[in-house]
Amino acid sequence: MTLQLWIWLMIGLTFSLYIGIAIWSKAGSTKEFYVAGSGVSPLANGMATAADWMSAASFISMAGLISFIGYDGSVYLMGWTGGYVLLALLLAPYLRKFGKFTVPDFIGDRYYSDTARVVAVFCALIISFTYVAGQMRGVGLVFSRYLEVDINTGVVIGMAIVLFYAVLGGMKGITYTQVAQYCVLIFAFMVPAIFISIQMTGNPIPQLGFGSQGSDGIYLLDKLDGLSRDLGFHEYTTGEKSKLDVFFITAALMVGTAGLPHVIVRFFTVKKVSDARKSAGWALLFIAILYTTAPAIAVFARTNLIETVSEKKYDDMPVWFENWEKTGLLTFTDKNKDGVIQYVADPQINELTIDRDIMVMANPEIAELPNWVIALLAAGALAAALSTAAGLLLVISSSISHDLIKKIIKPDVSEKGELIAARVSAFFAVLLAGYFGINPPGFVAAVVALAFGLAAASFFPAIVMGIFYKRMNKEGAISGMVTGLLLMLFYMTKFKFGWFGGGTEADWWFGISPEGFGTFAMLVNFVVSLSVCHLNAKPPQEIQELVENIRIPTIEN
After folding, report:
1. CATH code of 269's domain
2. In 3D, which of 196, 400, 229, 386 has the Cα closest to residue 298?
3. pLDDT (tens digit per residue) in 146-192
4. What domain range includes position 67?
């Protein structure tokens, strides 16, 4: 069977499964739409959380990033994995005990203020739209290569699919769809990795394979260091970033994780607090499978790519090279007109431009794996992007329908009216997400990293102090969130979009990159929050008692 037939078959089967689940699990109430009726088992919720968490950035872009920047790419592994541990231990059980549907709902009630709620809604929308841009971009990348359409058309197709099951099923439909998507994406990620690990090292366990010797007796990492050196790139196992920037990026990703609204809401879908802890444990296990495999895939892909293209004749390139050229994500410019590909670090000489986001998807083709494996990877990449996009769109729709309309604009709205508002909000959110997918501010993982910085700068201090510091009042929380968010937005737009006069790497404050600046903005948030807090009155007594109560364990049936 041809590759194209395999791709249509795999994608057709998986999409049919997702749509079938959405129809079966149609939400009939706002509770089912927002939190799946709070009746999801810990195991199922763990799988759904893992699928929600492992976005296009994790599946498509993270290994691609690591394959190009090597050692410095470890910040994504440490930050995203460590952040989930932080969320599971520090925040999730307490937020579940508080019992609210959304993060703005928690902040609005904890800080006894509609202003705080509106600020939180704004933060949630900014974070979610920044994050969803990366997901829709990932969908477009997959469709552009495997369905042979341009990226923009791919984004539109992805919008239509997400719209169907997110709007119809809400959190109930998304949860059970994400269980299926996790099974698809993890199988799709591991199968090519196992194949290539055996092919390159004889070891079927990728996590061990990339640290093993190849068929030539040379350790794979040593070989990649040598290939990189010969081409003028920095050694794969050495870093170029400053220790300060590595620390700030890792911290931003960690605390940003703990402030991501679409991940936090997953802990409201289980029956009780102990189930929230159990589902966090399951999710961490399921996430670790992919995250420990990504560094191996990065090494395999980078080594195979360099050996396949460097100093080779363009006319002798295999079919995969031409296929990726058609997408515009791989380009060859024969500067010296000799027909030989010069792939080197020097931009004056280099003739090959490679989009980092193609590395995972092109890897099975470069390694000449069977067509069904390539098709499976395509289905898995779509599952990863669509699962997270759906979760984010639900956060956007619930922020508008529940936190703005129900809580502030029209408190007497009926449940049916609120459900309609949620679905209409999701529809317009999909359209806006599609626009950001077509016009993204960078490659997938970089876009997503900025979303984490925004979450760290705005939500994390307000949530942590809302749980653990009963003296924190509405004035402090609002001031901190606004200051942190505006500071992060200023820095991000200045150095990523060239606004406010723009700037280069040499102009970074204290040498901190935009991806790591969320940590700095978060620290400013803490300072502002605490300073303003102590200049104003204590919260009402009932709020202080509420904070005490959510930290006290209770006996559950």
Report:
1. 1.20.1730.10
2. 196
3. 777 777 777 787 777 777 766 665 666 677 777 888 888 898 899 99
4. 3-307+330-550
